[in-house]
Amino acid sequence: MKILLLGKNGQLGYELAKQLPAIAEVIAFGRDELDLTDLNAVVQAVQTHQPNIIVNAAAYTAVDKAETDSVNCYLANAAAPAILANEAKAIGALLIHYSTDYVFDGTKTTPYEPTDTPNPINYYGYSKLMGEEGIKYSGCDYLIFRTSWVYHPDYGNNFYRSMQRLAKEREMLNIVADQHGIPNDARDLAADTVKLLQQPLAQLKAQSGIYHLTAGLENQTTWHGFATQIIDAMPEKTCKVVNPIPTSAYPTPAKRPMWSVMQRVLPA
Q1: pLDDT digits (tens, 9 = 90+) for 28-41
Q2: What is the pTM of this model?
Q3: What is the spatial distance between Cα 262 and Cα 242, in angstroms, rounded to a whole number?
Q4: Residue 117 is assigned to a structural domain of this protein
């Protein structure tokens, strides 16, 4: 089995590039080798390598920057996945694509199900939703995995590592406490993906659809709660106080959903 992996230098892609070779031949590209905004290059990569499975872990993830850099965001998150889906359809490949909790508006107070109606409130979320729609419209075999609050404790730029760094520099931190979600370790997301891909390909194709790849509901928290867990576990730190603050005290260019807890739902 041959897997084409896109986004090998991202947090999730980094782990997938480490774990996927245990089950298949893997051809992996980072942004330097294959930029999703170059749609012709995306087509060429699929046609050249003819994979059985395409795993798209690449995305434009700068949520606030996306509000003004909408063209590049749309190319990477909406246009490129649609192109990948069309190419997957043409060669009979299965497309694995990762989406986001930000397709939802955060107005629920119970966990989001894959069947809930999306309603993004920022451009990043909109672009990811358009990526989902393009994949569905293509008619290819696909598994879309929505996930949330992705971090890697040892790699990349993320909330977890930022909290560790800041806790060594400052005595007090102010962290938003009214946005609710589920943090997800990229290592676990990759492991879940690898486990699923050990099923027969025909069985996976028969389960085409949208799923929620997240940790269990017992892991739901706020950014403040997550920060507190991270800092409490540090053996050496300068930070003595982690203050809870409302979203209104930390304005950002892009709105965030106040509730983006998703129910874990995966193929059988």
Answers
A1: 999 999 998 999 99
A2: 0.96
A3: 26
A4: yes
